[in-house]
Amino acid sequence: MKRTPYVRAAVSVVLLAAGPVAAATSASASAHAARTATAVTAARADTDAQGAAAAALKKYPGYVESLDQDGAVWHVNVVGKNGKSNSEVIVSSSGAASRANQDTGQDAGEYKTLIAAKVGAAKAMKAALAAQPGKVRSLDWDNENDNGVADHWSVQIKSANGATRDVGIDATTGKVVPADSGGDNGDDGGDNG
């Protein structure tokens, strides 16, 4: 914080003038300030997927295409409102967003279904959490129509017991659909082919 050098200078002047009594008071005030700063940092370190998506859209307005957590930061890919650009936005644990890179001159048709989707990223995460309680760890737009599944969101959720599950959310209805394989859905992993 920018105030810290000024506070330290003021404390030093008081210590020189008032002696040992001021030193004890100053130490108590410093300890309180440290506890307050720690509490504020802990409160700000709780940026979840929904908060990361909102921060990214504030920094770069458009449509969230994907997001995933990497340690304490979120990587959010946002498609511009015109569909001709996309940007990777990094969101820190405190919720601060910064643009990592941007691609312009994209084919607007590539993102046409994402832009037209009735269920956006925020609603998809909410629907997935209603179906599978836990914390969202990643979200991906999928319009490849694999296995006859229409455009949908693939949302990876980590439950309280540590299990990870992929939940598919239909981009038109917001209903749960079969998710892509690749996550731990509780399947036995066998091939039914």
Question: What features would you describe in this structure?
Answer:
The chain is an alpha+beta fold. The chain has 5 helices and 8 strands. The chain has helices at 4-18, 20-44, 49-59, 112-116, 121-131, and strands at 62-70, 73-80, 85-91, 97-104, 135-142, 152-158, 164-170, 176-177. An 8-stranded antiparallel beta sheet has the order 4-3-2-1-5-6-7-8. Strand 6 (152-158) and strand 7 form a beta hairpin. Helix 1 runs antiparallel to helix 2 (20-44). It is flat, with a radius of gyration of 23 Å. Residues 1-29, 32-44 and 181-193 have low confidence and may be disordered.
What is the alpha-carbon Rg in Å? Answer: 23 Å
Q: How much of the polypeptide forms β-strand, as a percent range?
A: 25-35%
The helix/strand order is HHHEEEEHHEEEE
Largest sheet, spatial ordering of strands: 4-3-2-1-5-6-7-8
Which quaternary structure do these chains form?
single chain
Low-confidence stretches: 1-29, 32-44, 181-193
Report the total helices.
Answer: 5
**Major sheet characteristics:** 8 strands, antiparallel
Using DSSP, what is the number of strands?
Answer: 8
Percent in helix: 25-40%
| Mean pLDDT level | 77
How far apart are the termini? 60 Å
Category from helices, strands and their pairing: alpha+beta
Shape: flat
Give a quick precis of the structure.
The protein has about 190 residues and is α+β, with helices and mostly antiparallel strands. It has helices spanning about 5-20, 20-45, 50-60, 110-115, 120-130, and strands at about 60-70, 75-80, 85-90, 95-105, 135-140, 150-160, 165-170, 175.
